[in-house]
Design a protein that fits this description.
There is one protein chain. By secondary structure, the chain is α/β, with parallel strands linked by helices. The protein has 3 domains: about 40 residues, no CATH class; about 100 residues, 3-Layer(aba) Sandwich (Rossmann fold); about 120 residues, 3-Layer(aba) Sandwich (Rossmann fold). Helices cover about 40% and strands about 25% of the residues. It has 10 helices and 14 strands. The strands form 4 sheets. Strands 6, 7, 8, 9 and 10 form a 5-stranded mixed sheet that branches. Strands 12-11-13-14 form a 4-stranded parallel sheet, with helices on both faces. It has a 3-stranded antiparallel sheet with strand order 1-3-4, with no helix packed on it. A hairpin with a 6-residue loop joins strand 3 and strand 4. Helix 5 packs antiparallel against helix 9. The longest helix has 17 residues. The radius of gyration is 24 Å and the shape is elongated. The chain starts with a strand and ends in an 8-residue tail after the last helix.
């Protein structure tokens, strides 16, 4: 028997939803010219369940990536693109995607899809700060999913949060903005970290912490924060302050993951500000979703959940005021 060819066997040819990584398969011919395929597989903690008419894979763990969602279709497309890139990085992971709002697949459907043919679901928020969505809305739907799927273990992971990796990503954006401004003196270049804004003071405080870290690492004399909604100060107020204090350039850094309605609105606001302050040069940074540090943080959060007995707590876990907040409708913001 002699080797005829080397080929890759595709999942769809096997009618299997999720499989092991399949190494090159050797195709042999026999004297009777009957081909047989020999697969070399890598065990991925899966169990094959054979029925009369199809083969299904029962995966031990499924990762459910939870994005915010946007009224701007391109925002959700970017999250899908991000998820595809993440899947390519981890071909042995089963990754599903759902959204909190403004999308087709919302939380309940996402939990149900992730719970199919699996023993455990790792819920990973693709969200920068822990406000009402992370602390209350996702956990509420998670509890309902546990009731619908009592045989599946659901484990809730951390949001991204402010960290040294996030600082690296936003520092990179600041450097790029400074480059577009022809690298002016940082002493006369103000920086504004522009966050989404929340009714949760801890989430807003995370933006302030990030601004302080940038101030500590860079040479800019003014590093301020502003928000696009819900809370204050707003962008125009902080630009007015920095101009009064003598800044001749202002770098605006959106603290967002992906594009969307608010990112488009920020771009329009900066155009208006340039008209309002013609002698000030403005530089607008990009959002952070495709920075390598985001993937690295998600990898670390998944790895943490895979550790035995590792169930991370959020800031509000065990808080006696959480039930009161839920009863009175707090934790959800309006768009």
């Amino acid at each position: 028997m002699q080797p005829l060819a080397i080929a890759f066997v595709k999942q769809k040819e096997l009618n299997i939803k999720r499989t092991s990584v399949i190494a090159p398969a050797l195709l042999y011919y026999t004297p009777s010219m009957v081909l047989s395929v020999h697969y070399v597989t890598q065990e991925l903690q899966t169990k094959v369940c054979t029925t009369s008419n199809k083969t299904e894979i029962n995966v031990k763990e499924t990762i459910l990536l939870v994005g915010h969602g946007s009224r701007e279709p391109n925002g959700n497309k970017e999250i899908e693109q991000f998820a595809d890139n993440w899947k390519a990085r981890h071909p042995d992971w089963r990754i599903e995607v759902c959204y909190i709002e403004f999308a087709e697949v919302l939380l309940d459907e996402g939990f149900d899809k992730a719970a199919k043919n699996t023993n455990k679901v790792l819920v990973i928020p693709l969200i920068l700060n822990a406000a009402g969505h992370v602390k209350m809305e996702i956990p509420e739907h998670l509890e309902k999913a546990r009731q619908r799927h009592p045989d599946v273990e659901f484990i809730y992971g951390k949001h991204l949060g402010v960290s040294s990796k996030l600082l690296t990503a936003i520092n990179r954006q600041l450097t790029l903005v400074m480059d577009t401004l022809a690298m002016p003196d940082p002493k006369t270049t103000g920086v504004i970290i522009l966050g989404r804004g929340s009714s949760d003071k801890i989430a807003n405080g995370e933006v302030a912490k990030l601004a302080r870290w940038i101030y500590e690492e860079r040479e800019h004399e003014l590093v301020d924060i502003a928000f696009t909604g819900i809370t204050y100060p707003r962008l125009e107020t902080m630009v007015q302050r920095q101009v009064k204090l003598g800044m001749t350039q202002i770098a605006i850094l959106p603290y967002y993951l992906f594009t969307g309605t608010l990112i488009n609105r920020i771009a329009e606001q900066v155009k208006h500000l340039q008209t309002q302050y013609p002698r000030i040069r403005f530089g607008l940074g990009s959002y952070l979703g495709f920075e390598p540090e985001i993937v690295s943080l998600l990898d670390a959060n998944v790895k943490a959940l895979k550790q035995p007995d590792n169930k991370p707590m959020m800031e509000c876990d065990g808080c006696s005021y959480r039930e009161f907040a839920q009863e009175h409708g707090h934790g959800h913001h309006q768009h």
